[in-house]
Amino acid sequence: MVFSQTGVVANANENPVTENNFCTKIKMNRNFFSYLFLWVSLIILPEMVFSQSADFTIQDVKFESQGVTLAGSILKPKNPFAAVVIVHGSDPVKREMEFAKRLAKEGIAVLTYDKRGVGESGGVYVGPSVGTNNIDTTNLNLLSHDANEAVKTFRTYLKDKKIPIGLIGFSQAGWIIPIAASKNPQIEFMVLFSCPTITTLEQLRFQFYTNGNNSFWENHTEADAREHTKNDTDKYQFVATDPKISLNTLSIPGLWLFGEKDIQIPVKLCIEQLNTYKVQGKPFEHTLFSTLGHNTVFDSNTTPFDISIQWIKQKTLNIKKYKVSK
Question: What is the per-residue pLDDT for 326?
């Protein structure tokens, strides 16, 4: 499963300075030495650096997971109301800094890390871009261990030890997050963008059937897609991971955000499964965006992101009230 992301670049404009103004020259020299002092100070500080925004700080961290060292960054607002660890999709991507900054500016503390085998993190990346299967049970369980170790590490850096911690992720994280949450009671909520609730083999059948065709839904029906997802011959043979096994054990709040035009996962089949859980009384919710595809969180339409923030605020407030009442 694949997703792309876009970065945000901010430009700053400064007023021009008149060179023949002697006082201005003195001021410029003072500014130069001030900048030099700040630059030296940032080098001397061992790990903590301040972001361009005064709303949060950024601290680089390292932690151990299954015999390797993973590297990441913690973004911490002054008074965060919640904390999240970001779980990657399938691509060999480094820490999700731009997305983490968006969250931090909303008052959420974030730990984001380079995926195993990518960037400054140790281990070996597994995935189709290097010719290996990254959705077999062994790798998904390994990545869930990484997410859990990130949560444990994150907790030690948070001043408020009772602040709710959740997982937020994309695409492939739909299998990783439930596994991690089912094994770690510190995880109290989860937000999943374009994440499957079906097995890994079912997802592959659908993905092979759509074959990356962005106009797929203009020429196919839901019934047609569902038939192929359920019954197509598997191109690869491996033990399937079924997220329902982990989801059956969970009672923490969860939010899934889907794009109806998705050609990576069969969205309506996934929603059907979530509706089954809602009937059972599980606190799982979903939102469907009719004009979006797989990149629900990185699309220029910020509505999915905005909804996720409001949902996190509501759910973490409820979690805090429950803790106080106990």
Answer: 72
| pLDDT at residue number 2 | 38
Query: What is the pLDDT at residue 54?
Result: 60
pLDDT given for residue 229 in this prediction:
96
Q: What angle do CA 166, 138, 73 make, to 5 degrees?
A: 40
Query: What pLDDT does 208 receive?
Result: 96
Angle at 235 between CA 232 and CA 236, to 5 degrees: 125
Q: What is the pLDDT of residue 36?
A: 34
292, 217 contact by CB (below 8 A): no
Strands 68-77 and 56-65, how do they pair?
antiparallel
Low-confidence residues in the chain, pLDDT < 70: 1-54
Q: Kindly report the pTM of this predicted structure.
A: 0.83
Hey, what long-range contacts does 222-225 have (CB within 8 A, 24 or more apart)? 222/268, 225/266
The secondary structure of the chain, three-state, reads: CCCCCCCCCCCCCCCCCCCCCHHHHHHHHHHHHHHHHHHHHHHHCCCEEECCCCCEEEEEEEEEECCEEEEEEEEEECCCCEEEEEECCCCCCCCCHHHHHHHHHCCEEEEEECCCCCCCCCCCCCCHHHCCCCCCHHHHHHHHHHHHHHHHHHHHHCCCCCCCEEEEEECCHHHHHHHHHHHCCCEEEEEEECCCCCCHHHHHHHHHHHCCCCCHHHHCCHHHHHHHHHHCCCCCCCCCCCHHHHHCCCCCCEEEEEECCCCCCCHHHHHHHHHHHHHCCCCEEEEEECCCCCCCCCCCCCHHHHHHHHHHHHHHHHHHHHHHHC
* Residue 128, pLDDT score: 85
